Task: structure prediction
Amino acid sequence: MHFLGYFASVLIGISLGLIGSGGSILTVPVLVYLFQVEPLLATTYSLCVVGLSSIAGVVSRLKQKLVDFKTIFVFGLPSIFGVFLARKFLLPAIPEAMQITSKILLTKSHFIMLFFAALMLVSALSMILGKNKKEVEGVLPIYGITLMIVGLGEGLLTGIVGAGGGFLIIPALVILAKLPMKKAIASSLVIISIKSLVGFTGDLFHTNVDWAFLYKIIILATLGIMTGNYLNKKMDGAKLKKGFGVFVLGMSLFIIIEQFFFSNLVN
Result:
């Protein structure tokens, strides 16, 4: 199982390098199902893995001058604040157990995994069904209050489950800010890296971290993202995105089925 986990850690990075998203939504399932890490702790580890491994992608995009710093300020700062609020207040506020019906007892771990599966499902459908729009040259980026509000909401959602949120950030930057896809991916990686590390730093005050284990995952994911950066120049990103979307869809359905039928959710 651990061998599969280490292999999957490389795939996490490759996904981030190829399409700027997706890797973060694999990290928690990999940690929970292949390394048997408790779900709440897995969200903390995920923030560290995604935050540090994304730096390799950030450096590459900075060299190519693809990062839009104004977008990072307008969208990224509210997103970072959202992660802080989620980790500091929302996550501790979730009850340890919720009796939904006489036969369904929803624990905090169950809630985190099911909420994560729901985000994965939305992400998968957007990757599979999303149309590849042609970019229009000369369109100026749009910055405004809507982008700030969406950034805050994205931070709150992904902060709960320890995801980087590229699957939400990139569509927001393309649709709302009118950024070209390559700039949206580059800017997304910067935002993911900063907000993930901010969230992880906050968790350090109340979490015991197995650094020896975490370092291995970070190194493998970083190697993956460097590989993904290279493959990004060689492969059709649109086909990869849809193929990865199918994989994520399968993962989300697996988590939902596993939680309902094999995790004592239903008594």
Q: What stands out?
A: The longest strand covers residues 97-99.
